[in-house]
Amino acid sequence: MAKVLVTGGAGFMGSWLVDELINRGHEVTSVDDLSGGFMRNVSKGCRFVKMDLRDAKKVDRVVKGQDIICHLAAYAAEGQSVFSPIEINDINITPMNNLLVSAVNHDVKKFLFTSSMAVYGSQKAPFSESMPAKPDDPYGVGKLYCERMLQIFSEVYDFDHVIIRPHNVFGIRQNISDPYRNVLGIWINSIMRGKPPYIYGDGRQTRAFSYIEDNNPALANAVEWEKANGQVINLGSHESISINDACRIVLDIMDSKLKPIYLEERPCEVKDAYCTTEKSERILKYRTNHSLRQGLGKMIGWAMEIGKQKPSYRIPLEITKRAPKVWREKMI
C-alpha cells in the first residue's frame, strides 16, 4: 500500500484512477478545484481536498506525506488553446511547477504525469513514442514543457517518474457540458438538447477513441509497476475512425434524425491523430476490449441518466480572430 495523491480526482480520468487505486489497497488523496470535475465523481473511499493547484502553499501542504503523485489535472482543450493561451497554459503549467517543487522537498518516491498525444503535432500517424515531439499548438507545447520538467527533476533529484500520453479517451463521467473539448460528449449533449452535432472541416479527420474502462487498469499499472519507471508510453486504442463515421455511430445509437452541420476547419487541427499500442500492451498490459460502438452505448446510457447539460463557457476566448463562430456566439 502506498499513499497516493491524484490531482484532477473529481474529473473524468482522475476519478476512475482514484477508484482503481482504492480497490488495489492504496490510501488515496484526491485533489480537484471542481472547475471541470464533479462531486458526484468523488469516491467515498478517498480523502478529498478542494483546491486550486496554482496555490503553491496549498500544494505543499497536500503533497507532504505522499509516496506517489499522479498528476492528471489539466484543462485539455487543445483546439481552444490557440484562442485562450494565457489561461490554459496557466492552468496546465503552474500546477506542474508547484507539484514538482513540493515533490522534491517532501521526498516523493514517484511522479506519474498524464501528457497528451498533442506533443506529436502533425507528424504521420500512427504516432510512436520514438518520434520526436513537435507540437503544433499551445496546449501541446505546454504538455511538452511539463514532460521535460518532470524528466529533468527526476534525474537531478533521483525519484521515479512515468509519462503517459493518453489519446481521445471517452466514457462515463466525462464532462459533456464543455463546448470546447471532448467531441463525443459535445455531440451527445447537443443531440439530447435537440441541436445538431457540429463537425469542423470535412469530417475526414481520423482519431482512435479509447474507452475509459480499457485505459484505466493500464494507467493504474503504470502507478504500481516498476517496469514503467522512466518510460514515455502512449495509452489508448489503435482502431482509427473518421469523425464522420464516429458521428454516424452516435446518431445511430441515440436514434436521432438530426444531421451534422459542417463548419470551417479549426486552426492547427491535426488531420490524422492516433498512436501505436505496442509499448502500452507490452509494459502496461493494455488491451482494447470495447469497440467505439460498445463504449458509446455505455456512455450514452449514462448521459441520459444524468440528463442534458447546459454548456459551460467558463474559460473565455482571449482571441476571437479566426475562432469558430459557434464558440464566439456560444451556439453549441
Describe this structure in words.
- The chain starts with a strand and ends with a helix.
- The protein has 10 helices and 14 strands.
- Helix 3 packs parallel to helix 4 (138-157), helix 5 runs parallel beside helix 7 (243-253) and helix 7 (243-253) crosses helix 9 (292-306).
- The strands form 4 sheets. It has a 7-stranded parallel β-sheet, with helices on both faces. A 3-stranded mixed β-sheet has the order 12-9-14.
- It is of the alpha/beta class.
- 48% of the residues are buried.
- The chain has 2 domains: 3-167 and 211-235, NAD(P)-binding Rossmann-like Domain (Rossmann fold); 170-207 and 238-273 and 290-328, UDP-galactose 4-epimerase, domain 1, CATH 3.90.25.
Number of discrete helical segments? 10
Uncertain segments? none
| CA-CA gap between termini | 45 Å
Which CATH first-tier class of the largest domain would you pick?
A: Alpha Beta
Mean pLDDT equals: 97
Please report which band the strand proportion falls in: under 5%, 5-15%, 15-25%, 25-35%, 35-45% or over 45%: 15-25%
- Overall number of strands: 14
User: Could you spell the SSE succession in H and E letters?
Assistant: EHEEHEHEHEEHEEEHEEHEEHHH
By CATH, the topology of the largest domain is: Rossmann fold
CATH architecture of the largest domain: 3-Layer(aba) Sandwich
Query: What is the molecular shape?
Result: globular
Structural class: alpha/beta
